[in-house]
Amino acid sequence: MRIHTQTVLTGFVLLALSISLQAQNLSMQLIGEKQIGAPAVPQKAIPYGSYCYLAAKGSGLQVYDIANVASPTLVNTIPVSALQNLEVMNICRREDRLYLALGNFFGNNGQNAGLAVVNIANASDPVIEDVWKSDIQDKGSASVTVEGDYAYLCAMSQGLYILDVSQPGDIAFVSQYIPDPDFPTPNPAPAQVPNARGLAIRDDIAYLCYDAGGLRVINISDRTHPVETGQYINPAFNNKQQAFNNIILNGSIAFVAVDYCGMEVLDITDTANITQVSWWNPWECQSPSNIWVGSPGHTNQIDYNAECQLVFLSSAQSELSVIDVSVQTAPKLVGSYGSTDDQQGTWGMTLDSNRIYLVYITAVIPFVSNWAGIRILEWGKTSHVTELPLTTPMLLYPNPARHAFRLEYILTESGEISLEMTNIQGNVIRHILREHQTAGLHSQAIEPQLPAGSYMIRLTTAHATHSIKAVLVEE
Asked: DSSP letter at 452?
């Protein structure tokens, strides 16, 4: 069991640096985990009382008893053979029912898209009420959202299926809508073909994350005839492929997980003219050196805590990222769990009150991960800045990096500071800045323009010197 609670006192970045660095004093602690034997690619976990339901792909739907949260115990399974041989790719819950998005979408072995309704009135013994299966075998489905009497199934290349689930034992097809595939790229190459990945719904409007096709706005007031009324893509990419995966709405703002491009904050007041408010882009995905494969982060699933104004992101090799969006024009990383170099990567993430359910997969592309299973974290926020360590903690990310870092650090008092880059022996090779700075959290971009290798970034204040190791890798 990993509990990441150390701070940095020397030049080495310990795994939980960002836990003690927070402007909001965010704390996270691992309280339970369950490893699943490799190879395994579980997708998402949903807690319900003292149980947790895992969309376990080829292993079906798994039920875990988490009464003893430190050691979840598998107590039941619905196999894929009971789901028309469709793999379980995602899951959502409404009261005492689960809705399963079915159909493998990985690799070249895609399946039909499907939906299952599962009754969990007896939480440890789920009962299938109905399974619906599309007529087309292609790329399966990525997620499902349920609002009122309708389920909205994101069916990858087959777009959006709208299904009537008012009678849980008799799922009824309503309509299928495939958005325009020729935006932003006309006649897209195979790698740029859009796929329906994630969805949020409000006021008869569906906001569809269409992968390489950006964000689509679809009017569903007439569910038998959906109409696309808006499109958005980040203009900063110069035709480089994007990957819009999932979305959360908060008033007139949308938070969008954009794979290796972090998170975009979008103004959706005018759905026909969506504009970018800000962009949290820690891995600089627009850089030619970041080519998706091997990127230190891939945001996938997303959740939001409105009280604390925090966005939680599963971020693959970077595992978990927590973003403060209280200032929407300047989102900041205020918490993280895991390390980019531990060869463990997340796919799924669910926020449930003060717990976070992280789902890890085994993978070799686009990131390396050799551990699969569920980790349960407990998190909290305090507001007393005086609880910060007396030292000046620092966070450096991404690290390793290909050409640029971002350094975040807290000053406990105002004063003159200097930032320098040194070799491992301590000899200064780059002067970054020297200036007067106020107390509080600071952020500094660093582009060292140095050969690949190990270096130190040194922060000097009036009372102390603090260093952090920085690793540059080949472009």
From this structure: S
Q: Give the per-residue pLDDT at 388.
A: 35
Closest CA to 343 of 315, 373, 363: 363
Q: And the tokens for 19?
A: 């836990």
Peptide bond into 181 cis (omega under 30): no
DSSP state of 37: P
pTM above 0.90, yes or no: no
Contact 105, 147 (CB under 8 A): no
Instruction: Find where tokens 């020397």 sit.
Output: 10
State which amino acid sits at residue 456.
M
What tokens were used for 164?
């009537």
Q: Are 411 and 367 in contact (CB under 8 A)?
A: no
DSSP 70: T
| pLDDT at residue 475 in the model | 67
Size (the chain), residues: 475
Q: Count Cβ atoms within 10 A of the Cβ of residue 355 and give its class: 0-12 exposed, 13-18 middle, 19 or more buried.
A: middle
C-alpha distance from residue 321 to each of 178, 280, 331, 346, 353 (Å): 32, 11, 12, 11, 17
- Enumerate residue ranges in the chain where pLDDT < 50: 1-23, 383-392
pLDDT digit string, tens, across residues 409-419: 888 778 888 89
310: tokens are 């925090």
**Do 229 and 272 touch, CB atoms closer than 8 A?**
yes
